[in-house]
Design a protein that fits this description.
With about 160 residues, the chain is α+β, with helices and mostly antiparallel strands. The protein has two domains: about 80 residues; about 60 residues, Beta Barrel (OB fold (Dihydrolipoamide Acetyltransferase, E2P)), CATH 2.40.50. The chain is about 45% helix and about 25% strand. The chain contains three helices and seven strands; from the N terminus they run αααβββββββ. It has a five-stranded mixed beta barrel. The longest helix has 30 residues. It is rod-shaped, with a radius of gyration of 29 Å.
């Protein structure tokens, strides 16, 4: 009996190790963040096989770990990676009240560009449609209209307003 169980244990270990490796290599080739979690599930089943648990417990561990990691870890991982690609978006109300510098002149009734903070560029419009704001003028963001900042100057080229 013991020889048969030892042989089954070895086959279980080999099966889960190969499955974990194949899923991991498949993930590296596809970068879909889908197969990674099957690799993690196979690693859990491999640990259960080493612990001497039977094939049913291993299969349950594989399924549970795969689904749980996919539901919990995948969204967090995708969110983390999407924020690393560029600067974090300040959000709709995140720049209201912030100071900015005009980088592209804002024509009366038209649009220009401002740099908010350390380098986030926004399309901007003067809060009061008759205002024309030149490049280099410091402005304050009063509100946002979608992805357009509504600004007013806080200084002129000659000094404070």
């Amino acid at each position: 009996m013991r020889v048969g169980r030892g042989r089954s244990l070895n086959l279980d270990v080999i099966f889960w190790a190969v499955l974990a490796g194949l899923a991991f290599v498949g993930e590296l080739l596809s970068v879909s963040f889908f197969l990674l979690f099957f690799s993690l599930g196979a690693a859990v089943a491999l640990a259960l096989a080493f612990a001497g648990l039977g094939p049913v417990a291993q299969a349950i561990g594989f399924i549970a770990a795969s689904i749980l990691s996919m539901v919990v870890l995948r969204p967090a991982l995708l969110n983390r990676l999407s924020l690393r690609g560029g600067e974090a978006y300040a959000g709709h109300r995140g720049i209201t009240g912030e100071s900015a510098v005009v980088t592209e002149p804002i024509d009366a009734g038209g649009k220009g560009t401002v740099r908010v903070g350390s380098g986030e560029f926004w399309t901007a419009r003067a809060m009061y449609s008759g205002d024309e704001i030149e490049e280099g003028v410091r402005v304050r963001v009063l509100d946002t209209d979608g992805l357009t900042a509504l600004v007013e100057p806080v200084e002129t080229q000659g000094g404070e307003l």
